[in-house]
Amino acid sequence: MLSFNFAGKDSYLDYGIIIKRPSLSSPKKRISYIEIPGRDSSLRYDEGTFEDITITVECTLIGDNLFEKIDQIKAWLFGAGESDLIFSFQNDKKYLAQVVNSVDFKQIINYISEFPIIFNCRPFKYAVLNDLVTITQSGTNLINPGTIYSLPKIYVYGSGDITIKVNGEELKINSFQNKIIIDSILYDCYDDDFNNLNSKVDGNFPILKVGSNIIEWTGNVSKVEILPNWRWL
């Protein structure tokens, strides 16, 4: 039975919702087109970013006490905010999604109601299992299995002045003690207490390209932990 898991609850097991397999579209790239008089075609500017996607799930609810179930479903869908959305036919990947439509429950007969759910999703799918990768040796090769670069969170343990290199791109960290967190999603550096450490860091925030990524360092580093945030188009 096809189902989806949203905000930790299963559509079929928890609510008895039967779904049709939805269409899963790829995200649209943000490209600006500039028309120039006297010039053929147009200039194209690729921002290197993607727009959100929309997923529509056609649902059927069968059983007694439909109105009570519908109230429970509304509370679930609209109370969740942005949450993980996982489909049973691809349960190793997830979307970051939020319900955006006013759900119209259409009663077919006394025991059957049909309704669409429209999810607004961030552009990519993410790995459901996003485990920390621990690296204790400089020069370690980390493989990105996704289809687009990822934005990792990197935990560096050590002290003093060090240099972290990801695929040769250097990030210098000055005079730190014990641990620093380099967050490429937030473009921020901080410690466990969220104290701002951006002043101690010089360089671009690392990305993990598709395929091979060489992680290196110089200086007093005991280990590096990476939360990779693998993603797919």
From TrEMBL:
One Pfam family cited in the UniProt record for this chain: Sipho_tail
Signal peptide residues on this chain, from the entry's feature table: none
Siphovirus-type tail component RIFT-related domain residues: 15-121
UniProt xrefs under NCBIfam families: phi3626_gp14_N
Identification of the protein by name: Putative phage tail component, N-terminal domain-containing protein
